[in-house]
Structure prediction request, 326 residues.
Amino acid sequence: MLLPPFQLHEPTTVAEAVALRQLHPESDFLAGGTDLLPNYKWQLNTRPHVIGLHKVDELRAISPTKIGALATLKQMNMDGALWQEVPVVAQTAGLIASPLIRNSGTLGGNLMLENRCFFFNQSYVWRESIDFCLKAGGTACHVVPQETKCYATFSADLPGPLIALGATFELAGPSGTRRVPAVEFYKNDGIDRHAKRPDELLTFVHLPPTASQYRASYQKLRQRESWDFPELGIAVALKMKGETVEDLQIVANALECAPKLLRDIGSGLRGKKLTDAAIDEAAAAVETQVRPVKNTNLSPSYRKRMARVFTKRALLEARAGGPRRA
Ligand SMILES: Cc1cc2nc3c(=O)[nH]c(=O)nc-3n(C[C@H](O)[C@H](O)[C@H](O)COP(=O)(O)OP(=O)(O)OC[C@H]3O[C@@H](n4cnc5c(N)ncnc54)[C@H](O)[C@@H]3O)c2cc1C
Ligand code: SF4
Prediction:
């Protein structure tokens, strides 16, 4: 499969990247290219202009409270300060795809990853044989045919723990910068997926200084541990006060069109002991609240059942202190 022709632009600053985007509304940003370029080869929503970010060095910095969009997944996974202060972020970066992909795949590309669906992530000829679909070139959805909404599955891992830890995303656009809480960033729609405006660039992720007070965990189900996309991910962030829960955030990820913060389950445990029975109860509640559809490799009923198992694992790991660097 060949890449379609496009004009490549190479800004060296955020301001230049934003200006280029204004000049070429029919364009995509390119970071590591591990998602965008395979999609282009499959002729999925290609654009005539591509704005490469690889020379925008100001976006590469990493610290436990601020991570640049161009930080690679490998750099995040190898960063000692991240492991020290927010280990779940460093660990999750290392659970994404394969070592080769993590060498070039970036934080920004992960947060902006295209939603996936069995009927979308296919070659042009394959999609043509089913008359395409709503998300690329067609008029109907093959997963929920009576609907006009796309149910493509959210498949990026890092947003799960970042939402649980209370991160905010910084965006740069023609009228300046703004911050959006990660929990408000994603929309439950496989096409209109997020709050970033088309002329904005995602520049930084900010973690609150209090994030390091949480014990967190991310548990991910995939078909092949070596490189597959998540079939589900459960992120938890737990803050204890003595023997009882002061705060608990649980995010069900990669089960629907967007990560889902299950506020009521977490807040129901505030002021209580996190006993084995309480963990079992919370895990059962997660199973009842998630609604996967049939558009990934594993069946919705299996993913739903596994949401309970993986929530239990996440809560047990968080209770024990969170992940440690191998
Ligand atoms: C075999 C395989 C397995 C994978 N497994 C996983 C997995 O397990 N978990 C997972 O989460 N991902 C997985 N991925 C997806 C992907 O590799 C990663 O999510 C990676 O982090 C994407 O980053 P990138 O820099 O390569 O993004 P790119 O491909 O460069 O960009 C992806 C999208 O983000 C947009 N974008 C990039 N940077 C910015 C920015 N700063 N501002 C605005 N928009 C931006 C691009 O326009 C594009 O739409 C997998 C990919 C492959 C090929
Ligand atoms: S959920 Fe429906 S519209 Fe969305 S990608 Fe899949 S088939 Fe297409």
